[in-house]
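User: For my dataset I need records formatted as: sequence, then structure tokens, nothing else. Please produce one.
Assistant:
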Amino acid sequence: MRVCNLRLARSALAGMKHLNRLEHILARAEWQDEFAEGLLLDAQGRVIEATVSNLFAVKNNQLYTPDLSTAGVAGIMRRAIIEKLAPELGIVCRIVDMELDFLQAADEIFLCNSVYGIWPVNQLVDDRQATGLSQSNYSEHLVTHKLQQQLVRLLGE
């Protein structure tokens, strides 16, 4: 996943599912196929979501997901993780104002949406010219895999 240059604006539609995806389409146009996803920040530099998915960070076996009260779309899979999957596994989930450095220092990152389910992020690349190249790698996805397995169990019921 890469950090996008485009910044999400404050929106009266923040948190709601809607069809206005222009910002996300413009952000996706920033790269070819060398990345699977793009990370979107707001105008203040806070982490919000990815171009087609919601985002979670894992730190010390706890989940963190960005606050979507000013921008972003609160997806169905995000809600399922917060309200059902994580609690069933005894995993604490916090909705927070998330900075990029917190995300880069996380133990794991994963993305989710109702089409793809839950999938791990192996690498986060920030190649914006103003910041220079920085890269964070995530190799173990223990909590992510537990959540994936719980989702499979839930769907099998």
